[in-house]
Amino acid sequence: MNTIITGATKGIGRATAEIFAQQGFNLALVARHSEDLQQLKQDLESKFPVQIHIFPTDLAQKEEVLRLGDLIKTHWDTVDVLINNAGIFIQSEMLDEDNGLLENMMNINLYAAYHLTRYRTYDGGTRERTYL
Ligand SMILES: NC(=O)c1ccc[n+]([C@@H]2O[C@H](COP(=O)([O-])OP(=O)(O)OC[C@H]3O[C@@H](n4cnc5c(N)ncnc54)[C@H](OP(=O)(O)O)[C@@H]3O)[C@@H](O)[C@H]2O)c1
Questions:
Q1: 132 in any annotated domain
Q2: pLDDT per residue as tens digits for the range 1-45
């Protein structure tokens, strides 16, 4: 079973990656920092006999989300599970906050999940098979 997990290096995403690896799922792990991804890959591969691919990606950038979809396709024909876990919440005062703060949160929390879900489930005939 091929599983994409975004925001996989910390918190809920990391715990999910550990459980899925333990269950024998192959993983495509996504976060921005490649050193964290590399370390997680080594850690999981040392414990479980699974195939792990890592994809350093800034999900706030639409082009990077679409490129991620393309890169995953070079490894897998199908995706069985897509876990859109990555997300941020930065609390602030609307009138004082930095320009672009809300857009950045929306890009990661909403649009990245939207584009990746459309791209990896409705493209390539996998629509019936992907659990979201
Ligand atoms: N923890 C809670 O109590 C709680 C409550 C409600 C909802 N949630 C939601 O649950 C999800 C996980 O929360 P968490 O607390 O486990 O998160 P977390 O510990 O802050 O981890 C966030 C993960 O997302 C990655 N990430 C952040 N920005 C990214 C970006 N622009 N592009 C790609 N990856 C990015 C981080 O890695 P990099 O920094 O390397 O990119 C990291 O792997 C989030 O969507 C959060 O909103 C959490």
A1: no
A2: 899 999 999 999 999 999 999 999 999 999 999 999 999 999 999
Check if the beta carbon of residue 46 is closer than 8 Å to that of residue 68: no
State which residues form the domain around 60: 2-121
Q: Which amino acid is at 3?
A: T
Any domain includes 101: yes
Distance CA 113, CA 132 (A): 10
Paired tokens of 9 = 């290096």
pLDDT band at 120 (very low <50, low <70, confident <90, very high): low
Any ligand 1 atom below 6 A from CB of 29: no
How many domains in the chain?
A: 1
Q: At what angle do helices 34-47 and 11-22 cross, to 10 degrees?
A: 30
**7: CA distance to ligand 1 center in Å?**
5
